[in-house]
Every structure is written in C-alpha cells, then in structure tokens.
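#help-structures
NK: newbie question, is this the right format to request a structure? protein is CoaE-domain-containing protein
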Amino acid sequence: LVIGLTGGIATGKSTVSKLLKERHVPVIDADVIARQVVEPGTSCLAKIVKNFGDGILMSDGSLDRKALGSIIFKDEQKRKQLNAIVHPAVRRAMFWGVIKCWLKGERFCVLDVPLLIEGPLWKLVYKVVLVYCPPDIQLQRLMLRDNSSIEDASSRLDSQIPINDKLRYADDRIDNSGGVEQLNAKIDAFVAGLRREAGWSWVVSWLIPPYGIVSAACILAWRALWRSHKLNDKST
C-alpha cells in the first residue's frame, strides 16, 4: 500500500511524519528528496544552472536558494521553468523509493508530500491521508510558530488551498487539534489500521511481481473511479 500524507501549513504534518518514522513506518519525504536532487554534481542542478546562470550557485558549488528564489518569485514563467526541471526529478526519486520499499518486503510506505493534492500524485496513491486541524487553530499555530501578525499569517494561509477544501480529497484524516498524547494515540491506531488493511496479500505481490503490478493497476483504476464519483457527489 502506498499512502499519500499531506496537510496544510501549521497543521502538524511534519510531526505526524516524524511519529510514523519512530514507529518504523517507511516514509519517503518529498521535501528531503527535493533538496537531494539539486545537490552539487546532480544533473538537475546542472540544468538549473544552464537555465538560470552561475549566479544561483554559492562559492562551494551548492544551490543558492535565496538567489534562485529572488528570480522565480518575480517571474511566473521562470517559476514554471524551474518546476519543469525539479518536479520530474523528485517524482522519479519518489517512485524509486517506493520500489525500494517493495523490494525490502515492506507492507506499506508513506509518501510525505506537502502539495500532494495540488499536483497529480494524489491520483496515484492507494489512500490520501490528511493531517487536519480547524482553520482557527491552524491560524493560531502559524502565528505562534513564526511570531507573525494575524495579517501575515492569514496571507500565507490564503495562498494555499483551504484545509477544509482538502477534506474533499482525503480518504482518511488524522485530526491534530489536540495535544501530543492524543496525536500519539491516533498514530498508533492509524498504523495498526494500515497493518490490518495490508493483510497478507502483500506477500503474494512481493513474491510474484507480475501479480503485484496487475493488482496495483486494478486498484488504482478502481480508486480513480471511486474518487471521481466521490468528488462529484461533494461538489453537488
């Protein structure tokens, strides 16, 4: 089972991801991969330099994110150009991460993707899990975390899909409205549920790869139809 984990700013997705790792759940973190694919010596960084010039490099040859950010934030076309370079590399690395989990015989793995719903990846996972808290708590946490004003925090929230809108896409949610003890209990229940759901059919998929590929294709096709029906129902 490939589980897509997402959330909104200040909902606690990173905390949930950390707690899952502590329970030995394999987590493939898109943010970590996004940093790895632009490390010195990578083809991805070479393409970025070719398109944006040597000015986006630091003295040690690593990417100067601030310099690159000052370019792309002013120009939507250049931002799209950068995404066209980085996003495919990240998706490829995540795909191979899933393959490695499968080769190790893992029952399931979690893709930690902040923009899972904003991109196409939510259609390619078995289950979309949303780390959720009400918008008012989200705003309070963001202000406290960044020591920002209500205007600045609200502006950042407004730049994202509202957390309540993301509920339409979620197959499951982890409510992070309470404290740490409550969240730990919910993570325990969530992991136990995944283990039950995986059952023992994963062994057949692992031992007989063609069966696993056909099974995965059928599951994704069925869930694509189910999700389409679900979203149409909620939109009406």
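mod (FA): yep, format's fine, and the tokens are attached above. The chain has a mean pLDDT of 90.
NK: thank you!
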